[in-house]
Structures are given as C-alpha cells and as structure tokens.
Amino acid sequence: xxxxxxxxxxxxxxxxxxxxxxxxxxxxxxxxxxxxxxxxxxxxxxxxxxxxxxxxxxxxxxxxxxxxxxxxxxxxxxxxxxxxxxxxxxxxxxxxxxxxxxxxxxxxxxxxxxxxxxxxxxxxxxxxxxxxxxxxxxxxxxxxxxxxxxxxxxxxxxxxxxxxxxxxxxxxxxxxxxxxxxxxxxxxxxxxxxxxxxxxxxxxxxxxxxxxxxxxxxxxxxxxxxxxxxxxxxxxxxxxxxxxxxxxxxxxxxxxxxxxxxxxxxxxxxxxxxxxxxxxxxxxxxxxxxxxxxxxxxxxxxxxxxxxxxxxxxxxxxxxxxxxxxxxxxxxxxxxxxxxxxxxxxxxxxxxxxxxxxxxxxxxxxxxxxxxxxxxxxxxxxxxxxxxxxxxxxxxxxxxxxxxxxxxxxxxxxxxxxxxxxxxxxxxxxxxxxxxxxxxxxxxxxxxxxxxxxxxxxxxxxxxxxxxxxxxxxxxxxxxxxxxxxxxxxxxxxxxxxxxxxxxxxxxxxxxxxxxxxxxxxxxxxxxxxxxxxxxxxxxxxxxxxxxxxxxxxxxxxxxxxxxxxxxxxxxxxxxxxxxxxxxxxxxxxxxxxxxxxxxxxxxxxxxxxxxxxxxxxxxxxxxxxxxxxxxxxxxxxxxxxxxxxxxxxxxxxxxxxxxxxxxxxxxxxxxxxxxxxxxxxxxxxx
Length: 687
Ligand code: ADP
Ligand code: SF4
Description:
5-stranded parallel sheet; 687 residues; alpha/beta; 23 helices; 8-stranded parallel barrel; metal-binding; binds adenosine-5'-diphosphate; iron; binds iron/sulfur cluster
C-alpha cells in the first residue's frame, strides 16, 4: 500500500544493540509540561508511538541538582524518586514497537540553578547564558568535579535503564549541554588536558561515553547530539571543526544526532527558514563515520524525506515540530495518505509553551498536550451526542476546525462563509512576507472538508440572525472572527487616541492591498508578529518606515517564538528605522507625537501615514443578535448557540483552531458545572 518511492523510509536500521523499525525519528523536544505534567507528557509520546515513529525521545532531562534551568520546565532524573514518572514515558513510547530514548543534559553555563541554589559548574567560569540574563556566574569544574560529573552521567544512565529506555542521547547542541561547552573554544578556555586542542576538548565526551558503555552498554545505545555550527565565527565550534571532531571520533556514539548551533537557528520559523534548511551543513558528514546520522529540517514532505536518505545525506529523518503538528506522519505515509498529513506551518507557537513555562499548544494540532489532560486524540473524535446537525458560521481557522472535527464526530455540518474562499484571516495573512506556509492551516482543513460526505460548504453567504432562525439547525457555532481597530486602543491607549489629518491604516487595510505611501509610522502596540511583518511589507513597497513601539523589543512576544532577533535583523536590512520604548501619543496633520515610555518626554516624527497595529474587535454582531432573540430559538429548532475563536475574544491562530476543536469535542456533552475542564497532576506531599 505504501508508495514504493517511500519504501526507503520504512527500512529498519540498527542503532547499537537495537533495531529501529523505520527511519522516522522524533528528536528530543520540549512541551512546557515536563516534570510538572509527567502524565500529559507521557501520553503525548505514546500518541507518537501509535503514529508510527521508529524512535521517540524525551525532552532534555536534567541529570543532577547542580545543573537545572529553572524557570524552564523539562524533565528531571536527579534521584531514584524521579524514575517512575520517566518510566511511564518510556512505557508509552514502546507501546507500538518504537525505541524509547532519553536525552541526558548537564547544562553547565546554561543552568542558573535558581531552584536548587547550588553554585553552577561550567567548563570555564563566566556568567550564565540563558534567555533570562540571570545575574549568576558559574565556577569552573575542577578535576574532582569532572570525575563527579562522569559519575553523575553513569548514575543517570543506570536510572534511565531502570526506567526502561533503549537509547541515551548526550546533549551538546543548540549552545546547550556540557558536551558542546567542552567542544567549543567559546565556552572552553581551559589550560589543562580538557582544553586547547580539539583532541583535548573531545576528551570529556570520550570519557563519558566509555563510562556509559562500561555501565549500561550491553543493553543501551548512545547518541551524541552535537551542533552543526555554532555560527559565532572562528571562536566557536564551526561546521569544519565538527567534521574534524566526527572524523577523529567516528565510532564514539552509536549514532550522530546533528542539530544547528543555536536553538533559534535550529528551530527557525518558516518565515526565516525553509524545509531542509540544514542540508548543506549536514551533507558529507555521513562519509566521516560508519555510524548512522540523524538530522532535522522541519521535514513535512515525504519526497524530501526520501531524498535525504536516498542521497545519503541522513539515515534517519529527525522531526520535532512536524511530529507535533501531525504525530501520525509515518502511518499516513505508510498508508499512502499523503494528503492527510497535517503539515507544520513553522509558526513556533509550540515553542512558546516552553518559553512561557505554561504548556505547549500547536496551531495545526489542537490536541497536542491535551492527549492526557482532556483525552483528545489527534485522529479520533469522541462519539456523537444526541443532536444531529450544526451550522458553523465563518470559515476561518476556528470555523474550519470546528466543521472538520464535528464532521468526524458524525454530525451533519453546514459551513457558511461570507467571502469567496475559506480560510478567514489565514487567507489574508498567508500573503504577508514570509508567511505563505501559514496557509496550510486553511489548505489542510479545506481539503479534509472536501472529502467528507456530511459537510456542505456555502461561500458568499453572509448570514444574519433572521437567516439563521429560518434554517432550522439544532446547533449554531458562530466563528465570525474579528477586525483590527483603527483608533489605537490596545495597551498604551485604553480609550481612542487623539488623531487628525493623517491617513491611518489598519492591518486589514494593508492585507486588502491598500498600502500607505511615503513616510510611514508603524505603531506597534500588539507586540506579536503583525507590526514587524507590516513594517517589512511597507519597506518592500518603497515606503520610508519608522516602527515605533512602547516595548523594549521589536515584536516583543516573538522572543517566545525564537524569531525576535531575526525580525529585528530583517527590519534593519530593509532600512526600517526602529524606535523602542516609545508610544505614539497622538496622530497630527504632520505626523505623530510620541512619548518616552519611561519619562513621558514628548517627541515628534514627521510622516505621511500611520499604520496602527493595536488590538482587534470581535465581529460578534450576529451572535449578539441571536442572543437577543432567544425567545425565538425553540420555534426555529435551535438547541444551542455558541460563539468561538476571534469572535469570542481575538487571539493567535492557535487559539482559534483550539476553540474550534474544543467546540466540536464538547457539543452535546453534559455540563461539567464547576469542575476543571482538564485533568492535572498535583504534587504528592512528602512524609
Ligand atoms: P477565527 O480566527 O476565529 O477563525 P477569522 O477572522 O479568521 O476568525 O474568520 C472569520 C470568518 O468569518 C471570515 O472568513 C469572515 O468572512 C466570516 N464571517 C464573518 N461574519 C460572517 C457572517 N455573518 N456570515 C458568514 N461568514 C461570516
Ligand atoms: Fe508547527 Fe506551529 Fe505546530 Fe509548532 S505550533 S508544530 S511550528 S504548526
């Protein structure tokens, strides 16, 4: 049944003492749950097993109390009492014949130890390097510490074996992990036998690997996750030096796991990185070692995956985000259901769960991290309730996902959309610079709906309350979206901004093709991607652009999606002038009046137009009209009316797909009263 072109992806391959059943390799990835939500994280990995992955890894697992990365939430294996939670994950991973892998991490110069209050130990002394600029320095490991650290790795490996894992990954990539710190001259300035030459800088990796082979090598396989290029010039661990390292130590691990030098480089969003972006850095490395090689590249296309293996670039297709967006990629390729793959859009919303220490969500897969909390399965819906049909109004991400999931549940669905195409905001936003892959949110769902016999779609159908009351649907789901405000109301202004004279454009204007001209001030009080992307759009259209924001960073919230640096760089390259820590106080006939965010000191920027990226207003008139006519519902046969997505409260696209899915799951379900809407884990009290 599998297309023969993809058979190569299903050939088994040996990794040390273990045979991987296929080439689909879920590389370690965070999920925002970690040690706080072990059952949620375990169930999520179990779903990957069901989806056909040959190898499944944990997120990074801290091996010792002297190195932890609070506030970020990963896994911990500090002592025996951590084993059960991790064992649950290994057990779930192995349910369908996948190999279970654990990534062991000692964070060294990345671990501020805010929780354990231990003095951080690093290869060389220096300030802690993390996202949070903690005012903490590490001291360097002395010889006794190094011996201890080797033992801590052995202890963690033994615990991993007890927990049931087959593979251990030693973490030294993305700038994180002690192995990279030893290898890179940027973090290793030691004068002893662990510093200086590459041979010396490799010593620690060789010692730990030998220790682990002695301790658990008969039953476990070892992978090394190393940076492809630290991208900080000659001082760092370059791609050339990585190749020397692998050539010198080709057989050191049972497998090489290659990942780009910094996390934002490796997990770059689609706005800045194409699929297979690391190919040039990986190519040829396989020839330096007899061991298999895995690499990543936001692979969602089976053709690209098969090519990577056929051309000898990689042995295993490493995926984090694609496996989040669709945990069933391997099964779908095996069953020749390529068009059913829910492709990752590369928005990095999943990463924000880790960065905000909340719990991850995925724009494309609303069930991610809800597999245990809510019992949501990415491919199967709960049984249909006792009503028969639903009218979904609005074909944006919320309405599309509601219609798709409702139809899978067995309801007859009518989807009414005012416009000419389905997709809502995604139809507009996918045309913005770098955001074309976001269109997959609409494309996937539009195709799925086209395959369902119980869904009717009506375009150019702007419905009124009167229409809805005349149709006779039992359930009405209103997903009519939102629009951007022109009056500046957001955070800086809680009432409309004074303004006169100058043309003011909203993001909706620009997305509809109405662009400003001349000198343009983009005022960003939204702080996600829209302000930055519209500044780029205007600059590319020939405007002289100044981006003004009260935040200390351009597109501040995108620090959570690992793209803030790339956005700032792109704007500078496009000639956009950036004014930070500044609000727009008023629009005047000659430009804008500004105010320093700290002191209020006034200023002035001359301009011909203003682009106001403030907040959005829900388009909920239809909902309000229907609520006002509740007395007519019974005669019209209406049992429920609900508003979801941006029409309820505007948010990112991921919020809308989640709202659509949730609506579909909960329709006709008993009211849970005051009970929590999800399961959670509560810490057990000690003694
Ligand atoms: P969300 O992100 O919540 O899905 P969007 O703004 O992307 O919201 O999509 C809302 C969609 O609803 C738009 O495509 C819009 O054309 C459509 N819409 C708005 N009002 C109506 C209406 N009264 N009848 C039918 N469709 C509507
Ligand atoms: Fe991909 Fe976005 Fe989902 Fe992350 S949140 S897996 S980047 S679609």
